[in-house]
Every structure is written in C-alpha cells, then in structure tokens.
C-alpha cells in the first residue's frame, strides 16, 4: 500500500522564511519599492515571479521583475552555508519513512537554493524525490506541484498528505484533493492556515513528530 508524505521545505523543514523576507525587502528597496515586511512574509511560499506580481500588482514596471528576483536570489544565497533546519525536521522524515511512507518534497525552491536546503536538512537518505518550481507550469497555490509530487511518489490523492506552513501550501493541497497539514513554524497564524484548507495544524515538525499516532497521518498509515 502506497502512502506519500509530501513536504514543503521553506518554513516547514528549514527555518528560512524570515531570511527570505529580509532578502526580498532589500531587493524591492534596491529597485525603488517600499514593500512592508508583513506583506512580504504573507507572500512567502509563492514562486519568485508570482511573489513579485502579488506584491507589486499588475500596474508595476514588469521589466523590473527579473532584476528584483535576481537580487533576492543573490542576497539569499549569502545564507546558504548556514541555513538552520527546524528542530525535529529530519527526524520526522525518517520516522515517516520508517513507517512505510514515501517522502517527496514539493517546493518553490530550485537549483542551488534547493541543494542548499537539502544540505541543511541532511535527510537525503529518506527523500525519494523533489518536485521543484522548475518541474511545473504553475507554482503554488495552483495544485501542479502537489500533483507532480504525487506522480513522483506513485500515489493518488487518497494516498497522500501534504505538510506545509503557508496559506499557499494549504490552498494548493486542497485544490489537489490532498489533506493539508499546517505547521506554525513559518510564522503564519493557525486561523489563516485553517481558513486556507488545513485539516489540522501543529506547532512545528517536532510537534508533529510527537503526534504521529493521532490525526490524519495515523488514520492513513500503511
């Protein structure tokens, strides 16, 4: 029996959301835009192009989009060697793998950024695949990344669960008909995650690890 645990990475397994906020704030500032940090924080989880469009709107100078994204990438890359995994993240993945779950990452990160996240997480021995932003036409909140992750795992929507920290994660999983488990480790309020479709919410990867014998994962366990 196939069971697939699909995971977001930023803010879910690695403690990077506020690093992204700082890098995006500076990238917007260098391009002449003042974007409040709370607004940037709520947009984390979108792909770069979607995030810029979401925060600057349709009337922006679109010729700046690529430069803003590139500046963010360059600034964020300065943290690559010290990205901190969240407590219990790798243990959670290994515990699920030990119970027969197939582990697949579904993330907006790609390229060197994704390599740095996986290096920080240090759990490649139990990660079966990765659905990155390079693999789909539309990123979260579209269901494409979740569906691609299910394909990699060889699982149906009835056999998968998605764990993430943003409203975009919850919306994408819900659109893919996959139960969405929210984590508060990314800084998004419980009520917002639940409103976006979370079937349950936990404080952190470590908290979820301690509750594997209850909730949606226990009910679905092979």
Automatic annotation (TrEMBL):
Q: Which residues form a coiled coil?
A: none
UniProt keywords, alphabetically: Hydrolase
* Membrane-spanning residues: none
GO MF, one term, reads: hydrolase activity
- The answer on whether this UniProt entry bears the keyword Hydrolase reads yes
Pfam name, any one: Hydrolase
InterPro entries per record: HAD-like_hydrolase_sf, HAD-like_sf, HAD-SF_hydro_IA, HAD_sf, PGP-like_dom2
Among PANTHER family, the record links this protein to:
BLL8046 PROTEIN, PHOSPHOGLYCOLATE PHOSPHATASE
Tell me what this protein is called: HAD family hydrolase
- What organism is recorded for this protein? Streptomyces drozdowiczii
């Amino acid at each position: 029996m196939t069971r697939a645990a699909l995971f977001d990475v930023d803010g879910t397994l690695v403690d990077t959301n506020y690093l992204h906020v700082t890098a995006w704030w500076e990238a917007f500032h260098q391009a002449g835009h003042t974007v409040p940090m709370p607004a940037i924080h709520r947009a984390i989880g979108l792909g770069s192009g979607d995030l810029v469009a979401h925060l600057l709107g349709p009337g922006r100078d679109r010729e700046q989009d690529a430069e803003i994204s590139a500046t963010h990438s360059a600034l964020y890359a300065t943290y690559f060697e010290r990205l901190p995994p969240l407590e219990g993240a790798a243990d959670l993945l290994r515990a699920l793998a030990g119970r027969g779950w197939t582990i697949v990452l579904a993330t907006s990160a790609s390229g060197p950024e994704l390599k740095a996240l996986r290096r920080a997480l240090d759990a490649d021995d139990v990660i079966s695949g990765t659905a990155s932003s390079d693999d789909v036409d539309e990123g979260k909140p579209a269901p494409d990344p979740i569906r691609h992750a299910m394909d990699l795992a060889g699982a149906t929507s009835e056999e998968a669960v998605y764990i993430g920290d943003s409203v975009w994660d919850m919306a994408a999983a819900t659109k893919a008909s996959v139960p969405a488990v929210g984590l508060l480790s990314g800084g998004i309020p419980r009520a917002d995650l639940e409103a976006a479709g979370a079937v349950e919410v936990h404080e952190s990867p470590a908290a979820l690890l301690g509750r594997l014998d209850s909730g949606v994962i226990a009910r679905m366990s092979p």
